[in-house]
Amino acid sequence: MTDNTQVQRMSLDAALDVLARRRGEQVVVGTMTANGVWREKSPHDLNLACIGFMGGASTLALGVALSQPERDVWVIDGDGSLMMQLGSLGTIAGAAPRNLLHIVIHNGVYETSGSQPLPAQQQVDFARMAEGAGYAQTASFGDAEEFDAAIDELLAADGPTLVQLYTRPADRFYSARPTPPGTTPALARMWPPVAEALK
Amino acid sequence: MTAQSIPAELLLSAIREAGVQDVVLVPDTHQRTVLDLLMDDDEIRTVHCSTEDEAIAVSAGLIIGGRRPMMQIQHAGLYASVNNLRGVGLDGQFPIVMLIGLLGRDPELTPEEDGSSMVRLCRPLLETLDIPSHLLDGPDDLHHIAEAFDEAAERHGPVALLVGTTTS
User: Fold this and answer.
1) HEC states along B86-124?
2) pLDDT digit string (tens) for A30-82?
3) Which of chain A's ends, N or C, has fewer CB atoms near its CB within 10 Å?
4) Which residues in chain B are closer than 8 Å to A62, comparing Cβ atoms?
5) Residue B51 with chain A: CB contacts under 8 Å
6) Is the peptide bond between A160 and the residue preceding it cis, with omega within 30 degrees of 0?
7) 56-95 in A: which are within 8 Å (CB) of B?
8) Backbone torsion region of residue B19, taken as left when φ is above 0, otherwise alpha when ψ lies between -120 and 50, otherwise beta
9) Which of chain A's residues have a Cβ under 8 Å away from the Cβ of B155?
10) pTM surpassing 0.95?
11) Distance between CA atoms of B61 and B52, rounded to whole angstroms?
12) What is the residue-wise DSSP string for A19-63?
């Protein structure tokens, strides 16, 4: 059994910097805290976000990956998010998109609601779960330099690939703001330009 | 009223004529004969999901990528997936067409008269979510499938098609 209390953990910034340096024309689906950080590091017309349907990032990315087999699709998922729709590991493994990279930010807490612990916080291991589900590749990193050294080889091989990144909880909290009446929701604003760019 | 069983071949033809490229599904006992045909179909791809939540998000992703998917689920899955239906379908304004089987419905009664809450509450739930629904109570209702795609595109949101009794 994995002991998450003993693993090395990198900062979220360092983890996402490794990915941002490889950003090309991939569609990238972000969610929760990492999404905001990612959009600052890698602003792009092909960024999508899972907002308001926690757990749906990986399967939204799966749909894009299946529809665009020649384009790489990355999803930057959260551990709490993935826990909410854990069956998606089987769904993704079954569909077997070779172009999907599934990053899981493993900080062990529900960060946006105040860092309450994840169920099975001390031992849950998403890389082993993904391996059991049938992903083509899985890996875990707690050190940004090691992740940086290994990611190109992982990206070069066929997916679906799940990379679990052990990170320290960020020192920030999300605050929901009221939505003024008549506001077009973020997802509805976000996806049509991406769809247009993919034509 | 009496709901008539729709032959699987006719239902599949209507799906094909609507231009569906992907059927994103969680198996529905009610539509098992259609599922059998879909498994062997070379033109329409099936994407098998663990939950209906996932089916909604996968469908949205396929739409972003330029495909024309249709969801195929059971009524219980509709209840299970309400947050994704709201967050993806409604807030995301995705034109998702859902084929939903009313498993266990008494074909002699309207769904609203049915003794099963899963059957009886289906249309009221959809109405609450402001999602239009059309009952497929026999082969004569199959025109709703292609029309549902037009309606979903016009409304920028989901449309439900309720399969009234077990397909044959």
Assistant:
1) HHHHHCCCCCCEEEEECCCCCCCCCHHHCCCHHHHCHHH
2) 998 899 899 999 999 999 999 889 999 999 999 999 999 999 999 999 999 99
3) C
4) 47, 57-58, 61
5) 85, 87-88
6) yes
7) 56-57, 59-68, 85, 87-88, 90-91, 94-95
8) left
9) none
10) yes
11) 14
12) HHTT-SS-EEEEEHHHHHHHHHHS--TTEEEE-SSTT-HHHHHHH
Burial-class residue B124 by CB neighbours within 10 Å (0-12, 13-18, 19+): exposed
**Quick check: A67 and B50 CB within 8 A?**
no
Give B76's contacts (C-beta < 8 A, 6+ positions apart): B103, B118
Question: Per-block average pLDDT, block size 10, for chain B (168 residues)?
Answer: 92 98 95 95 97 98 98 97 97 98 95 96 98 97 98 98 94
**Measured distance CA(B167)–CA(A126) in Å, rounded:** 40
* Beta-carbon separation of A63 and B60 below 8 A: yes
Token pair belonging to A142: 């707690």
